[in-house]
Amino acid sequence: xxxxxxxxxxxxxxxxxxIDAAFSECLANLGGEPVGPVGKLRGTCRNALGVHxxxxxxxxxxxxxxxxxxxxxxxxxxxVSVLAIDQGTxxxxxxxxxxxxxxxxLAEVPVxxxxxxxxxxxxxxxxxxxxxxxAGRRAIDEAGVPIEVISLANQGETVLAWDPxxxxxxxxxxxxxxxRAQSVCDRLRARGEVIAERSGLVLDPYFSxxxxxxxxxxxxxxxxxxxxxxxxxxxLTGEFVTDVSTASRSLIMNLDSRAWDEELLGYFxxxxxxxxxxxxxxxxxxxxxxxxxxxxxxxxxxxxQAALLAEGCLEVGEAKCTYGTGAFLLMNTGTSAPRSTNGLxxxxxxxxxxxxxxxxxxQVFTAASAIRWLQELGLISDARDIDTAAAADSGNVSFVPAxxxxxxPWWRADAKAAFSGMSLATDRGQLVxxxxxxxxxxxxxxxAACAADLGDSLKTLRVDGGLTRSAVLMQAQADILQLxxxxxxxxxxxxxxxxxxxxxxxxxxxxxxxxDWTPEHVYEPRWSSDRAADFMGNWRAAVERTLLSEGEx
Length: 553
Fold this sequence. Notes:
Elements: H1 19-24, H2 26-29, E1 42-46, E2 52-56, H3 72-75, E3 82-87, E4 91-97, E5 103-110, E6 114-115, E7 121-123, H4 125-143, E8 149-154, E9 159-162, E10 173-174, H5 182-187, H6 192-199, H7 208-218, E11 224-227, H8 228-237, E12 241-243, H9 244-247, E13 253-254, E14 259-260, H10 262-267, E15 277-279, E16 284-288, E17 295-302, H11 303-310, E18 319-323, E19 327-334, E20 345-352, E21 355-364, H12 368-377, H13 386-389, E22 398-400, E23 418-420, H14 428-454, E24 461-464, H15 471-481, E25 485-487, H16 493-506, E26 521-523, H17 529-551
Parallel strand pairs: 3-8, 8-17, 12-15, 18-24, 24-25
Antiparallel strand pairs: 1-2, 3-4, 4-5, 6-7, 7-10, 9-11, 13-14, 16-17, 18-19, 19-21, 20-21, 22-23, 25-26
Helix pairs in contact: 11-16, 14-15
Protein backbone atom coordinates (compact mmCIF):
# COMPACT_ATOMS: atom_id res chain seq x y z
CA UNK A 1 0.00 0.00 0.00
CA UNK A 2 1.00 3.60 -0.53
CA UNK A 3 2.14 5.12 2.76
CA UNK A 4 2.25 8.77 3.71
CA UNK A 5 3.38 11.01 6.56
CA UNK A 6 0.75 13.62 5.70
CA UNK A 7 -2.15 14.41 7.98
CA UNK A 8 -5.21 12.48 6.86
CA UNK A 9 -8.01 14.74 5.73
CA UNK A 10 -10.67 14.77 3.06
CA UNK A 11 -9.56 16.29 -0.24
CA UNK A 12 -11.50 16.21 -3.47
CA UNK A 13 -10.16 17.67 -6.71
CA UNK A 14 -12.70 19.90 -8.39
CA UNK A 15 -10.59 21.95 -10.75
CA UNK A 16 -7.95 19.50 -12.06
CA UNK A 17 -5.28 22.14 -12.58
CA UNK A 18 -4.00 22.49 -8.99
CA ILE A 19 -2.43 19.03 -9.04
CA ASP A 20 1.11 20.35 -8.52
CA ALA A 21 0.06 21.59 -5.10
CA ALA A 22 -1.96 18.46 -4.49
CA PHE A 23 1.04 16.32 -5.35
CA SER A 24 3.15 17.98 -2.69
CA GLU A 25 0.33 17.30 -0.23
CA CYS A 26 0.40 13.55 -0.74
CA LEU A 27 -1.28 13.35 -4.14
CA ALA A 28 -4.64 14.71 -3.13
CA ASN A 29 -4.60 12.71 0.13
CA LEU A 30 -4.94 9.18 -1.11
CA GLY A 31 -5.97 8.17 2.40
CA GLY A 32 -8.95 10.54 2.65
CA GLU A 33 -12.37 9.96 4.13
CA PRO A 34 -14.93 7.90 2.28
CA VAL A 35 -16.94 9.88 -0.21
CA GLY A 36 -20.50 10.15 1.08
CA PRO A 37 -23.63 9.11 -0.83
CA VAL A 38 -25.50 11.58 -2.95
CA GLY A 39 -28.74 10.74 -1.21
CA LYS A 40 -30.85 10.67 -4.40
CA LEU A 41 -33.02 7.64 -4.97
CA ARG A 42 -32.47 5.96 -8.30
CA GLY A 43 -34.39 3.45 -10.35
CA THR A 44 -34.33 1.99 -13.82
CA CYS A 45 -36.69 2.18 -16.75
CA ARG A 46 -36.43 0.96 -20.31
CA ASN A 47 -35.87 3.36 -23.13
CA ALA A 48 -36.94 2.91 -26.73
CA LEU A 49 -34.05 0.54 -27.40
CA GLY A 50 -35.04 -1.68 -24.49
CA VAL A 51 -31.86 -0.98 -22.57
CA HIS A 52 -31.68 0.05 -18.94
CA UNK A 53 -31.35 3.75 -18.14
CA UNK A 54 -30.38 5.20 -14.80
CA UNK A 55 -33.02 7.68 -13.68
CA UNK A 56 -34.07 9.82 -10.76
CA UNK A 57 -36.94 8.22 -8.85
CA UNK A 58 -38.76 11.53 -8.80
CA UNK A 59 -39.07 12.20 -12.51
CA UNK A 60 -38.20 8.98 -14.39
CA UNK A 61 -36.19 10.99 -16.91
CA UNK A 62 -32.82 9.84 -18.17
CA UNK A 63 -29.94 11.29 -16.18
CA UNK A 64 -28.47 14.14 -18.21
CA UNK A 65 -25.29 13.49 -20.19
CA UNK A 66 -25.05 9.79 -19.22
CA UNK A 67 -25.31 7.10 -21.89
CA UNK A 68 -26.46 3.65 -20.82
CA UNK A 69 -26.63 0.11 -22.02
CA UNK A 70 -28.08 -3.02 -20.47
CA UNK A 71 -24.86 -4.55 -19.18
CA UNK A 72 -26.43 -7.30 -17.07
CA UNK A 73 -24.46 -9.94 -18.94
CA UNK A 74 -21.30 -7.97 -18.23
CA UNK A 75 -21.71 -6.88 -14.64
CA UNK A 76 -24.82 -8.29 -12.96
CA UNK A 77 -23.91 -9.88 -9.65
CA UNK A 78 -25.53 -9.34 -6.27
CA UNK A 79 -23.75 -6.74 -4.20
CA VAL A 80 -21.17 -5.69 -6.77
CA SER A 81 -20.82 -2.03 -7.73
CA VAL A 82 -17.84 -1.30 -9.92
CA LEU A 83 -16.01 1.98 -10.51
CA ALA A 84 -14.51 1.54 -13.97
CA ILE A 85 -11.93 4.10 -15.08
CA ASP A 86 -10.93 4.54 -18.71
CA GLN A 87 -7.76 6.64 -18.85
CA GLY A 88 -7.44 7.64 -22.50
CA THR A 89 -5.40 9.94 -24.69
CA UNK A 90 -7.80 12.88 -24.69
CA UNK A 91 -9.57 12.33 -21.40
CA UNK A 92 -10.37 10.13 -18.44
CA UNK A 93 -13.83 8.65 -18.06
CA UNK A 94 -15.22 7.00 -14.94
CA UNK A 95 -18.50 5.09 -14.69
CA UNK A 96 -20.20 3.35 -11.82
CA UNK A 97 -22.05 0.13 -12.68
CA UNK A 98 -24.36 -1.21 -9.99
CA UNK A 99 -25.32 -4.71 -8.93
CA UNK A 100 -28.21 -4.73 -11.42
CA UNK A 101 -25.97 -3.95 -14.35
CA UNK A 102 -27.08 -0.33 -14.79
CA UNK A 103 -24.68 2.56 -15.33
CA UNK A 104 -25.44 4.89 -12.42
CA UNK A 105 -22.99 7.69 -13.06
CA LEU A 106 -20.51 9.10 -15.52
CA ALA A 107 -17.74 11.62 -14.98
CA GLU A 108 -15.26 12.81 -17.59
CA VAL A 109 -12.16 14.96 -17.20
CA PRO A 110 -10.41 16.11 -20.40
CA VAL A 111 -6.67 15.80 -20.86
CA UNK A 112 -4.90 17.15 -23.89
CA UNK A 113 -1.65 15.82 -25.33
CA UNK A 114 0.87 18.35 -26.57
CA UNK A 115 1.79 17.89 -30.23
CA UNK A 116 5.29 19.29 -30.60
CA UNK A 117 7.98 19.48 -33.25
CA UNK A 118 9.91 16.46 -34.55
CA UNK A 119 7.10 14.00 -33.91
CA UNK A 120 6.93 14.59 -30.16
CA UNK A 121 3.61 13.96 -28.42
CA UNK A 122 3.65 14.41 -24.66
CA UNK A 123 1.33 14.50 -21.68
CA UNK A 124 1.77 15.62 -18.11
CA UNK A 125 1.76 12.54 -15.87
CA UNK A 126 0.36 14.66 -13.06
CA UNK A 127 -2.55 15.68 -15.27
CA UNK A 128 -3.23 12.00 -15.99
CA UNK A 129 -3.24 11.16 -12.28
CA UNK A 130 -5.41 14.09 -11.29
CA UNK A 131 -7.90 13.22 -14.04
CA UNK A 132 -8.19 9.66 -12.67
CA UNK A 133 -8.77 10.95 -9.15
CA UNK A 134 -11.21 13.67 -10.17
CA ALA A 135 -13.26 11.53 -12.55
CA GLY A 136 -13.44 8.61 -10.13
CA ARG A 137 -14.49 10.75 -7.18
CA ARG A 138 -17.11 12.62 -9.17
CA ALA A 139 -18.62 9.36 -10.45
CA ILE A 140 -18.78 7.94 -6.93
CA ASP A 141 -20.38 11.13 -5.66
CA GLU A 142 -23.00 11.00 -8.40
CA ALA A 143 -23.75 7.29 -7.98
CA GLY A 144 -24.17 7.34 -4.22
CA VAL A 145 -23.52 3.61 -3.79
CA PRO A 146 -20.69 1.69 -2.08
CA ILE A 147 -17.92 0.66 -4.46
CA GLU A 148 -16.80 -2.96 -4.30
CA VAL A 149 -13.94 -2.86 -6.80
CA ILE A 150 -12.14 -0.39 -9.07
CA SER A 151 -11.01 -1.37 -12.57
CA LEU A 152 -8.69 0.50 -14.93
CA ALA A 153 -8.32 0.59 -18.70
CA ASN A 154 -5.22 2.35 -20.00
CA GLN A 155 -3.63 3.82 -23.14
CA GLY A 156 -1.32 0.83 -23.59
CA GLU A 157 1.91 2.26 -25.01
CA THR A 158 2.35 5.62 -23.26
CA VAL A 159 5.62 5.67 -21.29
CA LEU A 160 7.32 7.73 -18.57
CA ALA A 161 10.21 7.62 -16.10
CA TRP A 162 9.43 7.99 -12.39
CA ASP A 163 10.96 7.66 -8.95
CA PRO A 164 9.70 4.48 -7.25
CA UNK A 165 10.63 5.87 -3.81
CA UNK A 166 8.51 9.03 -4.07
CA UNK A 167 6.24 8.38 -7.02
CA UNK A 168 7.27 11.66 -8.63
CA UNK A 169 7.56 11.68 -12.42
CA UNK A 170 11.08 12.12 -13.79
CA UNK A 171 9.90 12.81 -17.35
CA UNK A 172 6.83 13.78 -19.26
CA UNK A 173 4.70 10.93 -20.55
CA UNK A 174 5.59 10.03 -24.13
CA UNK A 175 2.24 9.28 -25.77
CA UNK A 176 1.81 6.28 -28.06
CA UNK A 177 1.75 8.69 -31.03
CA UNK A 178 5.25 10.02 -30.22
CA UNK A 179 7.70 8.87 -32.89
CA ARG A 180 10.99 10.32 -31.61
CA ALA A 181 12.17 6.78 -30.95
CA GLN A 182 12.28 6.07 -34.68
CA SER A 183 16.09 6.23 -34.45
CA VAL A 184 16.01 3.39 -31.91
CA CYS A 185 14.00 1.28 -34.34
CA ASP A 186 16.20 2.19 -37.29
CA ARG A 187 19.34 0.81 -35.69
CA LEU A 188 17.51 -2.40 -34.72
CA ARG A 189 16.07 -2.95 -38.20
CA ALA A 190 18.25 -6.01 -38.82
CA ARG A 191 16.65 -7.61 -35.74
CA GLY A 192 13.11 -6.81 -36.91
CA GLU A 193 12.11 -10.34 -37.86
CA VAL A 194 13.25 -11.98 -34.64
CA ILE A 195 11.67 -9.18 -32.60
CA ALA A 196 8.39 -9.71 -34.46
CA GLU A 197 8.54 -13.47 -34.00
CA ARG A 198 9.17 -13.24 -30.25
CA SER A 199 6.88 -10.29 -29.45
CA GLY A 200 4.20 -10.52 -32.16
CA LEU A 201 4.69 -6.81 -32.88
CA VAL A 202 6.24 -4.72 -35.62
CA LEU A 203 9.40 -2.79 -34.73
CA ASP A 204 7.95 0.72 -34.48
CA PRO A 205 8.16 3.69 -32.09
CA TYR A 206 4.42 3.31 -31.48
CA PHE A 207 5.15 0.52 -29.01
CA SER A 208 6.55 0.93 -25.51
CA UNK A 209 10.14 -0.36 -25.58
CA UNK A 210 11.58 2.07 -28.18
CA UNK A 211 10.21 4.99 -26.14
CA UNK A 212 11.63 3.47 -22.95
CA UNK A 213 15.05 3.27 -24.60
CA UNK A 214 14.74 6.81 -25.94
CA UNK A 215 13.96 8.14 -22.46
CA UNK A 216 17.01 6.34 -21.06
CA UNK A 217 19.28 7.69 -23.79
CA UNK A 218 17.94 11.23 -23.94
CA UNK A 219 16.17 12.21 -20.72
CA UNK A 220 17.17 10.31 -17.58
CA UNK A 221 18.87 7.17 -16.28
CA UNK A 222 17.22 7.58 -12.87
CA UNK A 223 14.23 5.75 -11.42
CA UNK A 224 12.18 3.26 -13.41
CA UNK A 225 10.70 3.59 -16.88
CA UNK A 226 7.29 1.99 -17.44
CA UNK A 227 3.97 2.40 -19.16
CA UNK A 228 1.54 4.89 -17.63
CA UNK A 229 -0.72 2.21 -16.13
CA UNK A 230 2.07 0.95 -13.89
CA UNK A 231 2.69 4.47 -12.57
CA UNK A 232 -1.02 5.12 -11.99
CA UNK A 233 -1.48 1.78 -10.23
CA UNK A 234 1.54 2.51 -8.07
CA UNK A 235 0.13 5.88 -7.05
CA LEU A 236 -3.21 4.25 -6.24
CA THR A 237 -2.07 1.02 -4.58
CA GLY A 238 1.68 1.16 -3.96
CA GLU A 239 2.13 -1.95 -6.13
CA PHE A 240 4.56 -2.32 -9.05
CA VAL A 241 2.41 -4.13 -11.59
CA THR A 242 1.05 -4.13 -15.13
CA ASP A 243 -1.38 -6.46 -16.87
CA VAL A 244 -0.63 -9.01 -19.56
CA SER A 245 -2.45 -7.17 -22.36
CA THR A 246 -0.47 -3.98 -21.69
CA ALA A 247 2.80 -5.90 -21.41
CA SER A 248 2.07 -7.51 -24.78
CA ARG A 249 2.16 -4.04 -26.37
CA SER A 250 5.76 -3.42 -25.28
CA LEU A 251 8.03 -5.29 -27.75
CA ILE A 252 9.84 -6.81 -24.74
CA MET A 253 7.29 -9.44 -23.66
CA ASN A 254 7.46 -12.90 -25.20
CA LEU A 255 4.04 -13.42 -26.74
CA ASP A 256 4.00 -17.18 -26.18
CA SER A 257 5.30 -17.33 -22.61
CA ARG A 258 3.67 -14.00 -21.65
CA ALA A 259 6.78 -13.10 -19.64
CA TRP A 260 9.48 -10.48 -20.01
CA ASP A 261 11.98 -11.70 -22.61
CA GLU A 262 15.67 -11.30 -21.78
CA GLU A 263 16.73 -11.42 -25.42
CA LEU A 264 14.30 -8.66 -26.37
CA LEU A 265 15.36 -6.59 -23.36
CA GLY A 266 18.95 -6.90 -24.52
CA TYR A 267 18.15 -5.62 -28.01
CA PHE A 268 16.66 -2.45 -26.53
CA UNK A 269 19.41 -1.97 -23.96
CA UNK A 270 16.92 -2.49 -21.13
CA UNK A 271 18.52 -5.48 -19.47
CA UNK A 272 18.68 -4.97 -15.72
CA UNK A 273 15.80 -2.50 -15.72
CA UNK A 274 13.27 -3.07 -12.92
CA UNK A 275 10.07 -4.23 -14.60
CA UNK A 276 6.59 -4.61 -13.11
CA UNK A 277 4.96 -7.91 -12.31
CA UNK A 278 2.67 -9.08 -15.12
CA UNK A 279 -0.83 -9.78 -13.80
CA UNK A 280 -3.87 -11.44 -15.34
CA UNK A 281 -6.72 -9.17 -16.41
CA UNK A 282 -9.14 -10.67 -13.87
CA UNK A 283 -6.77 -10.32 -10.93
CA UNK A 284 -6.97 -8.06 -7.88
CA UNK A 285 -3.65 -6.19 -8.06
CA UNK A 286 -3.90 -4.16 -4.84
CA UNK A 287 -6.01 -1.96 -2.58
CA UNK A 288 -6.51 1.79 -2.72
CA UNK A 289 -7.72 4.47 -0.32
CA UNK A 290 -7.89 7.11 -3.04
CA UNK A 291 -11.67 6.99 -3.39
CA UNK A 292 -12.76 6.48 0.22
CA UNK A 293 -12.09 3.44 2.39
CA UNK A 294 -9.93 0.55 1.27
CA UNK A 295 -11.19 -0.76 -2.09
CA UNK A 296 -9.73 -3.59 -4.19
CA UNK A 297 -8.28 -2.63 -7.57
CA UNK A 298 -8.76 -5.37 -10.16
CA UNK A 299 -9.63 -5.76 -13.80
CA UNK A 300 -6.72 -3.98 -15.52
CA UNK A 301 -6.47 -4.02 -19.31
CA UNK A 302 -5.50 -2.03 -22.42
CA UNK A 303 -8.36 0.18 -23.59
CA UNK A 304 -8.79 -1.46 -26.99
CA GLN A 305 -8.92 -4.98 -25.56
CA ALA A 306 -11.51 -3.79 -23.02
CA ALA A 307 -13.73 -2.63 -25.87
CA LEU A 308 -13.22 -5.95 -27.68
CA LEU A 309 -14.59 -7.72 -24.60
CA ALA A 310 -17.49 -5.31 -24.09
CA GLU A 311 -18.61 -5.72 -27.70
CA GLY A 312 -18.79 -9.47 -27.29
CA CYS A 313 -16.00 -10.36 -29.70
CA LEU A 314 -15.32 -13.60 -27.87
CA GLU A 315 -15.05 -15.99 -30.80
CA VAL A 316 -12.38 -16.39 -33.46
CA GLY A 317 -12.91 -13.97 -36.35
CA GLU A 318 -15.13 -11.51 -34.48
CA ALA A 319 -13.84 -7.96 -34.86
CA LYS A 320 -14.45 -4.43 -33.63
CA CYS A 321 -13.10 -0.98 -34.43
CA THR A 322 -12.92 1.87 -31.93
CA TYR A 323 -12.93 5.41 -33.35
CA GLY A 324 -11.20 7.61 -30.80
CA THR A 325 -8.14 9.83 -31.03
CA GLY A 326 -6.94 7.13 -33.39
CA ALA A 327 -8.89 4.19 -34.77
CA PHE A 328 -8.09 0.63 -33.73
CA LEU A 329 -9.37 -2.56 -35.33
CA LEU A 330 -8.99 -5.78 -33.33
CA MET A 331 -9.96 -9.33 -34.30
CA ASN A 332 -10.16 -12.21 -31.84
CA THR A 333 -7.90 -15.17 -32.76
CA GLY A 334 -8.79 -17.36 -29.78
CA THR A 335 -6.08 -19.24 -27.89
CA SER A 336 -3.81 -19.14 -30.94
CA ALA A 337 -1.26 -16.34 -31.31
CA PRO A 338 -0.65 -16.24 -35.08
CA ARG A 339 2.00 -13.89 -36.42
CA SER A 340 0.51 -11.64 -39.07
CA THR A 341 1.85 -11.93 -42.59
CA ASN A 342 -0.01 -8.80 -43.69
CA GLY A 343 1.59 -6.03 -41.66
CA LEU A 344 -0.62 -6.30 -38.57
CA UNK A 345 0.37 -7.09 -34.98
CA UNK A 346 -0.62 -9.79 -32.51
CA UNK A 347 -1.23 -9.12 -28.82
CA UNK A 348 -2.81 -10.72 -25.80
CA UNK A 349 -6.49 -9.81 -25.78
CA UNK A 350 -6.85 -10.85 -22.15
CA UNK A 351 -6.00 -13.55 -19.63
CA UNK A 352 -9.12 -14.57 -17.72
CA UNK A 353 -9.55 -17.60 -15.49
CA UNK A 354 -6.09 -18.80 -16.42
CA UNK A 355 -6.76 -18.82 -20.17
CA UNK A 356 -5.19 -16.33 -22.55
CA UNK A 357 -6.94 -15.17 -25.69
CA UNK A 358 -5.14 -13.28 -28.46
CA UNK A 359 -6.06 -10.73 -31.08
CA UNK A 360 -4.68 -9.36 -34.33
CA UNK A 361 -4.89 -5.60 -34.55
CA UNK A 362 -4.25 -2.66 -36.83
CA GLN A 363 -4.05 1.03 -36.10
CA VAL A 364 -4.96 4.38 -37.65
CA PHE A 365 -3.00 6.99 -35.74
CA THR A 366 -5.32 9.92 -36.52
CA ALA A 367 -9.11 9.65 -36.45
CA ALA A 368 -10.77 12.11 -34.05
CA SER A 369 -7.45 13.97 -33.97
CA ALA A 370 -7.85 14.50 -37.74
CA ILE A 371 -11.29 16.01 -37.12
CA ARG A 372 -9.76 18.27 -34.46
CA TRP A 373 -7.18 19.30 -37.05
CA LEU A 374 -9.96 20.25 -39.47
CA GLN A 375 -11.49 22.38 -36.74
CA GLU A 376 -8.19 24.09 -35.94
CA LEU A 377 -7.76 24.89 -39.64
CA GLY A 378 -11.22 26.46 -39.70
CA LEU A 379 -12.66 23.94 -42.17
CA ILE A 380 -15.34 23.06 -39.64
CA SER A 381 -16.60 25.13 -36.72
CA ASP A 382 -17.15 22.24 -34.34
CA ALA A 383 -16.55 18.49 -34.43
CA ARG A 384 -20.27 17.95 -33.89
CA ASP A 385 -20.92 19.68 -37.23
CA ILE A 386 -18.84 17.24 -39.26
CA ASP A 387 -21.81 15.66 -41.04
CA THR A 388 -23.38 18.94 -42.06
CA ALA A 389 -20.00 20.29 -43.18
CA ALA A 390 -19.24 17.29 -45.41
CA ALA A 391 -20.27 17.49 -49.06
CA ALA A 392 -22.35 14.79 -50.70
CA ASP A 393 -19.21 13.52 -52.44
CA SER A 394 -15.49 14.32 -52.37
CA GLY A 395 -15.27 15.41 -56.00
CA ASN A 396 -12.62 12.71 -56.56
CA VAL A 397 -10.38 14.22 -53.87
CA SER A 398 -8.44 11.63 -51.86
CA PHE A 399 -6.96 12.12 -48.40
CA VAL A 400 -4.17 10.07 -46.83
CA PRO A 401 -4.65 10.47 -43.03
CA ALA A 402 -0.95 10.33 -42.14
CA UNK A 403 -1.01 13.34 -39.82
CA UNK A 404 1.07 11.33 -37.32
CA UNK A 405 2.60 8.88 -39.79
CA UNK A 406 1.09 5.67 -41.14
CA UNK A 407 0.72 2.61 -38.94
CA UNK A 408 -0.45 -0.80 -40.13
CA PRO A 409 0.10 -2.18 -42.64
CA TRP A 410 2.72 0.33 -43.90
CA TRP A 411 4.54 1.24 -40.67
CA ARG A 412 5.96 4.48 -41.99
CA ALA A 413 6.43 6.96 -39.17
CA ASP A 414 7.88 9.42 -41.70
CA ALA A 415 4.74 9.47 -43.87
CA LYS A 416 2.93 12.78 -44.21
CA ALA A 417 -0.74 13.48 -44.78
CA ALA A 418 -1.79 14.56 -48.26
CA PHE A 419 -4.80 15.64 -50.28
CA SER A 420 -4.73 14.69 -53.94
CA GLY A 421 -7.06 15.25 -56.88
CA MET A 422 -7.88 18.87 -55.99
CA SER A 423 -8.72 21.61 -58.47
CA LEU A 424 -9.95 25.18 -58.33
CA ALA A 425 -13.45 23.74 -58.13
CA THR A 426 -12.70 21.82 -54.91
CA ASP A 427 -14.61 23.25 -51.96
CA ARG A 428 -14.41 23.00 -48.20
CA GLY A 429 -17.12 20.37 -47.92
CA GLN A 430 -15.33 18.07 -50.36
CA LEU A 431 -12.14 18.29 -48.29
CA VAL A 432 -14.10 17.38 -45.16
CA UNK A 433 -15.71 14.45 -46.99
CA UNK A 434 -12.29 13.32 -48.26
CA UNK A 435 -10.92 13.26 -44.70
CA UNK A 436 -13.80 11.07 -43.49
CA UNK A 437 -13.43 8.74 -46.47
CA UNK A 438 -9.66 8.59 -45.95
CA UNK A 439 -10.13 7.39 -42.36
CA UNK A 440 -12.68 4.81 -43.54
CA UNK A 441 -10.36 3.65 -46.33
CA UNK A 442 -7.46 3.01 -43.98
CA UNK A 443 -9.74 0.97 -41.71
CA UNK A 444 -10.97 -0.97 -44.74
CA UNK A 445 -7.36 -1.84 -45.55
CA UNK A 446 -6.89 -3.07 -41.97
CA UNK A 447 -10.01 -5.21 -42.23
CA ALA A 448 -8.74 -6.72 -45.47
CA ALA A 449 -5.43 -7.56 -43.80
CA CYS A 450 -7.28 -9.16 -40.86
CA ALA A 451 -9.32 -11.28 -43.26
CA ALA A 452 -6.16 -12.36 -45.08
CA ASP A 453 -4.53 -13.42 -41.81
CA LEU A 454 -7.71 -15.22 -40.75
CA GLY A 455 -8.07 -16.96 -44.10
CA ASP A 456 -11.73 -15.97 -44.25
CA SER A 457 -13.66 -12.76 -44.83
CA LEU A 458 -15.14 -10.77 -41.98
CA LYS A 459 -18.93 -10.98 -41.77
CA THR A 460 -19.57 -7.70 -39.98
CA LEU A 461 -17.67 -5.01 -38.09
CA ARG A 462 -18.74 -3.83 -34.63
CA VAL A 463 -17.83 -0.23 -33.88
CA ASP A 464 -17.70 2.15 -30.94
CA GLY A 465 -16.20 5.50 -30.00
CA GLY A 466 -17.11 9.13 -30.40
CA LEU A 467 -16.82 9.25 -34.19
CA THR A 468 -19.51 6.60 -34.57
CA ARG A 469 -21.93 9.49 -34.05
CA SER A 470 -20.99 10.63 -37.56
CA ALA A 471 -23.52 9.02 -39.89
CA VAL A 472 -21.44 10.18 -42.86
CA LEU A 473 -18.34 8.38 -41.61
CA MET A 474 -20.23 5.22 -40.66
CA GLN A 475 -22.00 5.04 -44.03
CA ALA A 476 -18.69 5.63 -45.80
CA GLN A 477 -17.21 2.80 -43.73
CA ALA A 478 -19.96 0.42 -44.78
CA ASP A 479 -19.71 1.49 -48.42
CA ILE A 480 -15.93 1.18 -48.67
CA LEU A 481 -15.60 -1.95 -46.53
CA GLN A 482 -18.64 -3.61 -48.13
CA LEU A 483 -19.77 -4.96 -44.77
CA UNK A 484 -22.57 -4.14 -42.31
CA UNK A 485 -21.38 -1.75 -39.60
CA UNK A 486 -22.97 -2.42 -36.19
CA UNK A 487 -22.80 0.58 -33.84
CA UNK A 488 -22.41 -0.24 -30.15
CA UNK A 489 -25.29 1.36 -28.22
CA UNK A 490 -23.13 3.05 -25.60
CA UNK A 491 -20.35 5.60 -25.67
CA UNK A 492 -18.58 3.66 -22.93
CA UNK A 493 -17.48 0.34 -24.40
CA UNK A 494 -13.97 0.53 -22.95
CA UNK A 495 -15.18 1.36 -19.45
CA UNK A 496 -17.86 -1.35 -19.59
CA UNK A 497 -15.26 -3.93 -20.58
CA UNK A 498 -13.09 -2.89 -17.66
CA UNK A 499 -16.13 -3.06 -15.37
CA UNK A 500 -16.76 -6.65 -16.45
CA UNK A 501 -13.19 -7.56 -15.54
CA UNK A 502 -13.51 -5.79 -12.19
CA UNK A 503 -16.48 -7.95 -11.36
CA UNK A 504 -14.61 -11.10 -12.39
CA UNK A 505 -11.65 -10.05 -10.23
CA UNK A 506 -13.69 -10.18 -7.02
CA UNK A 507 -16.11 -12.93 -8.05
CA UNK A 508 -13.49 -15.56 -8.67
CA UNK A 509 -15.96 -18.41 -9.12
CA UNK A 510 -17.84 -16.76 -11.96
CA UNK A 511 -17.03 -17.49 -15.60
CA UNK A 512 -16.97 -15.07 -18.51
CA UNK A 513 -20.63 -14.55 -19.48
CA UNK A 514 -22.06 -14.59 -22.97
CA UNK A 515 -22.43 -11.00 -24.14
CA ASP A 516 -25.38 -10.01 -26.28
CA TRP A 517 -26.39 -6.52 -27.36
CA THR A 518 -28.57 -4.85 -29.94
CA PRO A 519 -26.83 -2.36 -32.24
CA GLU A 520 -27.96 1.23 -31.94
CA HIS A 521 -27.77 1.39 -35.74
CA VAL A 522 -26.67 -0.89 -38.56
CA TYR A 523 -25.20 0.74 -41.67
CA GLU A 524 -25.53 -1.43 -44.77
CA PRO A 525 -23.38 -0.84 -47.88
CA ARG A 526 -24.98 1.36 -50.53
CA TRP A 527 -22.10 1.34 -53.00
CA SER A 528 -21.65 -1.46 -55.47
CA SER A 529 -18.65 -3.70 -54.99
CA ASP A 530 -17.14 -2.30 -58.20
CA ARG A 531 -17.42 1.28 -56.97
CA ALA A 532 -15.84 0.32 -53.63
CA ALA A 533 -12.99 -1.47 -55.42
CA ASP A 534 -12.38 1.53 -57.69
CA PHE A 535 -12.33 3.87 -54.71
CA MET A 536 -9.84 1.71 -52.81
CA GLY A 537 -7.63 1.41 -55.88
CA ASN A 538 -7.47 5.18 -56.25
CA TRP A 539 -6.91 5.68 -52.54
CA ARG A 540 -4.09 3.13 -52.35
CA ALA A 541 -2.45 4.83 -55.33
CA ALA A 542 -2.58 8.10 -53.39
CA VAL A 543 -0.90 6.40 -50.44
CA GLU A 544 1.84 5.01 -52.68
CA ARG A 545 2.48 8.43 -54.19
CA THR A 546 2.76 9.91 -50.72
CA LEU A 547 5.21 7.24 -49.55
CA LEU A 548 7.26 7.56 -52.73
CA SER A 549 7.46 11.31 -52.24
CA GLU A 550 8.66 10.91 -48.65
CA GLY A 551 11.19 8.26 -49.69
CA GLU A 552 12.80 10.65 -52.15
CA UNK A 553 13.43 13.37 -49.58
